[in-house]
Amino acid sequence: MFDSWLRLGLDTVRLGMEAQTVVALRLAKLSLGGTAAQIEAQRMVTEKLEAAAEAAMTLAAGGTAERVVRDYRRKVRANAQRLRRG
User: Fold this and answer.
1) CA–CA distance from 68 to each of 32, 42, 63 (Å)?
2) How deeply is 81 buried, as exposed, middle or buried, from its count of CB atoms within 10 A (0-12, 13-18, 19+)?
3) pLDDT tens across 13-54, in order?
4) Interval 43-68 mean pLDDT
5) Neighbours of 63 (CB within 10 A)
6) How many CA atoms lie within 13 A of 72 on its CB side?
7) Which residues, at least 6 apart from 27, have a Cβ–Cβ distance to it below 8 Å?
């Protein structure tokens, strides 16, 4: 039992660190302005709403907090890769 709590804690810390990378990359993109910045701002809001709804559905269906954090981390890493490319 302690192992699962420790794993959840570490994964949550990793999620926070990875999310800060995405925040920095997004701020850089938004600071340039233009169409790309507008698209990114819209994408950011849409993704947050979708992720929150998906997390709620996961929990409502009996999923675990570990699953929610794992799903968020996957999405955050995908965003970081996309933003680093351009």
Assistant:
1) 33, 23, 8
2) exposed
3) 999 999 999 999 999 999 999 999 999 999 999 999 999 999
4) 97
5) 16
6) 25
7) none
Tokens of 58: 């996961």
d(CA 58, CA 42): 24
Assign 3-class secondary structure to 5-40. Answer: HHHHHHHHHHHHHHHHHHHHHHHHHHHCCHHHHHHH
Evaluate whether 11 touches 70 at the Cβ level (below 8 Å): yes
Residue appearing with tokens 């993109």: 29
Nearest-angstrom CA–CA distance, 80 and 86: 10
Parse the chain into domains and list their residue ranges.
1-85
